[in-house]
Amino acid sequence: MHPKALIEACTELVRLTLTFEHPADAVVSRFFRDHRGLGQRERAALAETVYTVLRKKLLFDHMAPSGSGPRERRLAILGFAHWQDEEARRTHPQAVHGARDFLHAALNEREKQWLIQCDAVRDDELMERHRHNLPDWLAQPLKLQVGEGFWPLVRALSCSAPLDLRVNVLKDKRADVQRELAQAGIASVETPYSPWGLRVVGKPALTKLPAFVRGAIEVQDEGSQLLALLLDAKRGEMVVDFCAGAGGKTLAIGATMRSTGRLYAFDVSAHRLDALKPRLARSGLSNVHPAAIAHERDERVKRLTGKIDRVLVDAPCSGLGTLRRNPDLKWRQTPKAVQELEVKQAAILASAARLVKPGGRLVYATCSVLPEENERIAQAFAAAHPDFVALDAGQVLAQLKVDAAASLCSGGDTGTQYVRLWPHLHQTDGFFAAVWVRKG
Ligand SMILES: C[S@@+](CC[C@H](N)C(=O)[O-])C[C@H]1O[C@@H](n2cnc3c(N)ncnc32)[C@H](O)[C@@H]1O
């Protein structure tokens, strides 16, 4: 594709994304479906350009007014240029800017001059908000929580997430899958914490690989794998994944149960549960029972009161721990939406807790980094439910032989009460988890 046509396509995609009517990943997928002729490299350039615009929106909004032409085109030019800079830095860490030849071939003289001006702006000349590119309501709580880690966190959030796989141990050993992938030209390393994880180098296409087709691998962030591990579901148990969605954690839990016992996958979205079905078929699991529920007090839920060994509540949340993958969330979420989520989270956790039998385990998890959706929900639950005893997540993970378990946790008297994963510290998405056992 000629550079001019590619920048025009980037401009159109930026325009569609910035309406914020739909999640960016859905807009991008739709665009690719509508433009089937796009090659692999063009798709990568389009997606990376748009994601860079979303990641650096405040900076680009600050730079765009000095340029000419439609605003979306200026943002697309900056997105493309900054993405190329990131690529160049990855391969040559000292590089300041990436090659501009391709991009220049798409620009007129005024645009080239403007880009040179933008390239000359130094980081230390910028206001703080143009460097961190976060809305104030999000920057403040992050600073309070991570202190000096704030700028490393900002840098981590401005990169794309690594591609993590979970090996389905029901089918294969991690080392065997790693060897098989290497033979297919896909390099990977073992993830540092999850016993099932492989971190793949680059972003190779996976869905046609024999290992994928036979259900030996699933794409899953290492942090998400750890939350499934934390539930520690055993052979023959009765287990509920209360907010199963498309079943990322369900599949991991089902495998730890060695496809025995009963694993209910509940969700209010039948559509999301439908996406679980082909994954389930590949996985070889026969112990999973997906069920769409109307709400958290549904009759199907009530019938299981006090009968379940382990319940995972992977609650609907702001998703603000996943900004590396979903940078649009920082512009689509609002403090008001978070408040509404808190009410829902507390209600779902309280309902799900009723299922846990005496001696059973309850795990509450989110992929949010906000204390309101995490510690605050866990503390309010603990205060209202004296029949649940909090377990120390650091100890639980250590018992599960997770390396450096304490470094994955924070909070409480022990400093390791809750799982707290951060992109800049653990190379995972931001995750939270709290664990309780019901008094026997
Ligand atoms: C964080 S997502 C789950 C992701 C999934 N566990 C995974 O690992 O792929 C939260 C899910 O909660 C579901 N949900 C929202 N309200 C619910 C409710 N009242 N009861 C059960 N599930 C609910 C949403 O439909 C969504 O699929």
From TrEMBL:
Keywords: Methyltransferase, RNA-binding, S-adenosyl-L-methionine, Transferase. The keyword NADP does not apply. The active site is at 367 (nucleophile). SUPFAM superfamilies: S-adenosyl-L-methionine-dependent methyltransferases. Its EC number is 2.1.1.-. This is RsmB/NOP family class I SAM-dependent RNA methyltransferase. One of its GO terms (molecular function) is methyltransferase activity. The keyword Oxidoreductase does not apply. CDD domains: AdoMet_MTases (cd02440).
